[in-house]
Design a protein that fits this description.
about 450 residues, alpha+beta, Alpha-Beta Plaits, Trigger factor, domain 2, Chitinase A, domain 3, 3 domains, four-stranded antiparallel β-sheet, 11 helices, about 20% strand
Length: about 450
């Protein structure tokens, strides 16, 4: 077997492999002889078919079979010989000339990059620190009350804070556009979940009134062709409802599972949940800072095949999250996130390898127990994870990432960065989604939301 390797653009390699004709010929004859023992062809008894006839009819098929097997085995052997680590499966270009007794192929693939980790000594990671206060608890209770608003229909013009039910049709240059029309959509005025001007344009309208809204989609609108375009919405106001907030009493406590309505227990539960969220948010923010530092310190050439694979995976995950909604984002939208994930995967993998980090089973157990603690039957959740290797593996991956974070924090200078609970838990701004594409009387789907769905 003769092997030659040419470097292509970036991480691409073209590996040409010439296979020994004699080896293929011998294997083909061997398989034809085996086949001859049981071959059934009209006019001949089983096992009595002339070899010449078998060769005429089946030699080509057997050659392809032998060639395919040799491609796999010789490719793996050549990778070891040339000390190459492919980033993904190769594209095989067969090079066969039976008359000249030449069998070979060219494998085109990308290799994993050689990564030399940058030293971290002297670098700084700012880690947020936060302590819960009584004022934070009061704010959370108020947020809970806001989430439990009751709506009462009113016969008056709408005001900021009201919830209106509308039907609308949007047009661009006089033509309807996808996702621009819907009916029975509930919108809370002032919540900022629609494109700029939509909610403001409905203030002061009464049930049965129609309004024309000439608006412009934001320039940063979801990488959509609608970005920056002027549009017109014809909106009919179907109903107006005003909010009322529940009192902080036994009834509110019962809504949160406190059967006897004990307010002290309710407050203690809320505080415990805030403590849990605080730790999760701090850990996530610190991890993000560490990952940013690793990306800044280590410039990595990325195999395109890995980036494309990650983009497809992210698009599929989003599709599953949206439940197969009609508006699907193309994989290219996820390119920046995919490149970040792939780069971090390579960097973290190298840190784990160079420092011989092993998964800490105690940490894994603690993480599983933390996950289980929010359920009514924690042990059942623990058994759920430990009863399946794949499920537990996902937690082990997170645990190993935490161990890398701890390792990095030992190498750098850590500076505290005070932050309030409100700042730490504020929603992450996201590009505006399309205007609502459909709605229902009890749970409308409002695509103008700026609430992030990522954690």
């Amino acid at each position: 077997m003769q092997v030659s390797v040419e470097a292509g653009e970036g991480l691409e390699r073209r590996m040409k492999i010439d296979l020994p004709f004699e080896q293929i010929a011998v294997e083909v004859d061997k398989r034809l002889l085996q086949f001859a023992r049981t071959a059934r062809i009209p006019g001949f008894r089983p096992g009595k078919v002339p070899m010449k006839l078998l060769r005429q009819r089946f030699a080509g098929r057997v050659e392809q079979e032998v060639f395919g097997e040799l491609v796999q085995s010789s490719f793996m052997e050549a990778l070891t010989q040339e000390s190459l680590r492919p980033a993904g499966p190769p594209q095989i270009e067969p090079e066969i000339d039976t008359a000249e007794k030449q069998f070979g192929f060219t494998a085109v693939f990308e290799v994993m990059p050689e990564l030399e980790l940058a030293p971290l000594a002297g670098r700084v990671v700012k880690c947020p620190v936060c302590e819960l206060t009584d004022a934070d608890l009061d704010d959370m209770i108020e947020r809970i009350r806001q989430q439990r608003k009751r709506w009462t229909a009113v016969d008056r013009p709408s005001e900021t804070g009201d919830r209106v039910t509308v039907s609308f049709q949007g047009t661009l240059d006089g033509e309807a556009f996808e996702g621009g029309s819907s009916s029975g959509v509930e919108i809370e005025l002032g919540a900022g979940r629609m494109i700029p001007g939509f909610e403001d344009g409905l203030i002061g309208a009464s049930a049965g009134e129609q309004r024309i809204l000439d608006l412009t989609f934001p320039e940063s609108y979801q990488n959509s062709p609608l970005a920056g375009k002027p549009v017109r919405f014809e909106v009919t106001l179907d109903a107006v409802a005003e909010p009322s907030l529940p009192s902080v009493d036994a009834d509110l406590a019962k809504e949160f599972g406190i059967e006897d309505g004990d307010l002290e227990r309710f407050m203690a539960d809320v505080r415990a949940n805030m403590d849990r969220e605080l730790k999760q948010r701090l850990d996530a923010r610190i991890k993000e800072r560490v990952m940013d530092l690793l990306l800044e310190a280590n410039r990595v050439e990325l195999p395109n095949v890995l980036v494309q694979k990650e983009m497809s995976a992210m698009a599929k995950q989003m599709d599953q999250t949206l439940g197969g909604a009609s508006m699907r984002l193309p994989p290219a939208v996820f390119e920046a996130g995919a490149r970040r994930r792939v780069a971090l995967g390579l960097i973290l993998g190298e840190i784990v390898k160079q420092n011989d980090l092993k998964v800490d089973s105690t940490r894994v157990r603690r993480m599983v127990e933390q996950l289980a603690s929010t359920y009514e039957q924690p042990q059942a959740v623990i058994d759920f994870y430990y009863g399946d290797r794949e499920r537990l593996g996902s937690v082990e991956t997170l645990a190993l990432e935490e161990q890398v974070v701890d390792w990095v924090l030992e190498q750098v200078r850590v500076e505290d960065e005070p932050i309030s609970f409100a700042e730490l838990t504020a929603p992450t701004p996201a590009d505006l989604s399309p205007v609502p594409v459909r709605g229902s009387s009890d749970k409308p789907e409002q695509a103008g939301s700026d609430e992030s769905t990522s954690g």
